[in-house]
Request: fold
Amino acid sequence: MENLNLFIRSIFIDNMIFAYFLGMCSYLAVSKSVKTAMGLGTAVTFVLVITVPINYLLENYILKAGALAWLGESYKDVDLSFLSLIFFIAVVASLVQLVEMVVEKYAPALYNSLGIFLPLIAVNCAILGGSLFMQQRAFPNVWSATVYGLGSGIGWLLAIVGIAAIREKLAYSNVPAPLKGIGITFIVTGLMGIAFMSFLGIKL
Amino acid sequence: MLSKKTRQTLLGPLSRNNPVIVQILGICSALAVTAKLEPAFVMAVSVTAVLAFANVIISLLRNTIPSSIRIIVQLVVVAALVIIVDQILKAYAYDVSKQLSVFVGLIITNCILMGRLEAFALGHGPWESFLDGVGNGIGYGMILVIVAFFRELLGSGTLFGYQVIPQIFYDWGYENNGLMILPPMALITVACIIWVHRSRNKDLQEK
Reply:
């Protein structure tokens, strides 16, 4: 129940795009058609589901103050938390590489549809952001962390597919010239964000 | 002191080639930290510092990095610089560092950094790269400060935490616009800046 609540919250209320603006760059750059948006969204969800739990384990068994206690008495006071940024980004970058190779080998159809987006995910703020929020919220166990990763990924997917669908329609409308393209996308995203705020306060 | 070309490198990103509103890079953090002026200002300074030094380091290393692993080298350099900034903020500006929370760490994945390292530092000398970093950092900071100015003024009636809208206005029935504090208004404020900027620079408009 706790996890279901977390799942719903991370999709709708703590939405990566509308509440924290994470992954905005690729969100704006790759939302011109629904098909590519869907591909990128799936890839982001996939990577988030893997990286958040791995970073959770790293954080709790290596980096946190006192986390190295399992090595023996003398390691009890070691606090490596200042290294967490470099650890997290290394995990993200290497995992993206790994995922890319695995997907290429075992699911070539998926690999072809994701194309260039897989490697680009390494520098997507939403991925590192997921890990950093996980660290900040101190989840009780690795399952909650996984659920959080999945929820944030789906929330991101929802947002990018939504904006891509709207932009496909916007291409035919009469927008003031200076707002064409990127300007109107910002405004529409803002309006979508206001709409998503109506989910605030939902509790299961 | 500066030749015409280096001046262009430094000043170009302020308006014609602004990283946020023209190149559309680094939006994530630009929007999230702008509810108040103070964190926006600190964020702008941090990004400028990281960008300038990362540019210089990558530019010095540009002939030794094999191109197949350059992304990870760039990430490591940037991550190391961000850790330094993070620790300095925690030591000397703890309150602001709490407000910025994860967004200091997210400087690592700020697209401006990757964009400038890839597009500029890999092909230019250290001094030019430094100027490019400072220029882009200031261009980014400028937008942050403009957005934060309007959001804090209209949303809380304060600037840098000091009350600027006089009490008498409130007595007459003026209300702070609570919507400005909420995340979606950051997007709409940036859209307005883009609107003004592009109606002045017609060649930037999209067809």
